[in-house]
Amino acid sequence: MDKIKIITIFGTRPEAIKMAPLVKELSSRNEIDNRVCVTAQHRQMLDQVLNLFNIEPNFDLNIMKTKQTLTGITNRVLEGMEEIFLKENPDLILVHGDTTTTFAGALAAFYQKIKVGHVEAGLRTYDKYFPFPEEMNRKLTGSIADIHFSPTIGSKNNLLKEGINEKQIFVTGNTVIDAMDFTVEDGYVFNNEELNKIDYNNKKVIMVTAHRRENWGEGIENICISLKNIVENNKDVEIVYLVHLNPVVKNIVYKHLEGVNRIHLLPPLDTKETHNLMNKCYMVMTDSGGLQEEAPHLGKPVLVLRDVTERPEAIKAGTVKLVGTNLNNIINEGNKLIRNREEYNKMSKAVNPYGDGKASLRIVDFILYYYGLTNNPCKEFL
């Protein structure tokens, strides 16, 4: 084999952020014919990342529809990928994480007997409805995958417990750390003028995101009430809440927090703005999975607004703390980090367990070794 044909598949902004450095690394290797397919499960937010990393897809399924359902997304990805696979006949496809694009892309490849590499493999909560549908997406993808690129030893151990052959698993670190080397800049000036007006040196700026399905309704209500309490009882605090565009989330947030002094309600930012806001902020409160990995890389403590997390390594390392959506928990833990410097330093100075910026390099090196294009076995991230 002189060249490996690989199709890299993703469809949402979080996937794109984590796959972008891998696409760049794949494209730099003469032994690889790399093609990029986007499903555009999320159109606008995906395009922001493609533009930032200067990635032009070879295939664009453009499946996003108003009020799209999980069933509709799955069907459209399956049908679109079948046509591409029949024409291209790749040696390997690469999918990432836990989206519906990931699972449907892997399933479409399985139907054509094409090998599947799963990036960020092995994360588990062991509750199929939390997070929904991500937990089952990643488990089902793991059942199909031929190569499992696990970000940590913990995620590798999860796969071993499920009977995956150890020779099929390779620990890489997380590619999101690679991506941050492209995006974070000293002295960054925001495109959003409201962010430029915030005094990051003299205020404790809390960056907030919360939008997961399991928090819809009472969970989002409690988060908003807690944030209002925190800002009203800590005069040195400002909150920047990046509000998801889904009306189920947006309507609740604006009902509780619109017009509250020192709370800034902004739409989701593009990747570069988000990473640089994170770099300037004091701490992060989120129900996002990706931010649990990204913020510790910048030394920012994270309070996770969920009852379970598929990223226990950060909890063990001390960079992240689970607080759920209980009012008292959020308020108490938030106040502790705001008012107690020793508690803050414990979390901000803990070592990030998720990577060293070389995950993409390890993944590509392993693929070349797997296909016999190099005799040098690569070392795992430990």
TrEMBL record:
Specify the signal sequence span.
none
Domain UDP-N-acetylglucosamine 2-epimerase: start-end pairs: 24-367
List GO molecular-function terms, semicolon-separated. UDP-N-acetylglucosamine 2-epimerase activity
Q: Which InterPro entries match?
A: UDP_GlcNAc_Epimerase_2_dom, WecB-like
Q: What is its EC number?
A: 5.1.3.14
Q: Which domain of life is it from?
A: Bacteria
Could you tell me the keywords of this UniProt record? Isomerase
One Pfam family linked to the record: Epimerase_2
What family is this protein classified in? Belongs to the UDP-N-acetylglucosamine 2-epimerase family.
Q: What is this protein called?
A: UDP-N-acetylglucosamine 2-epimerase (non-hydrolyzing)
In which organism is this protein found? Clostridium acetireducens DSM 10703
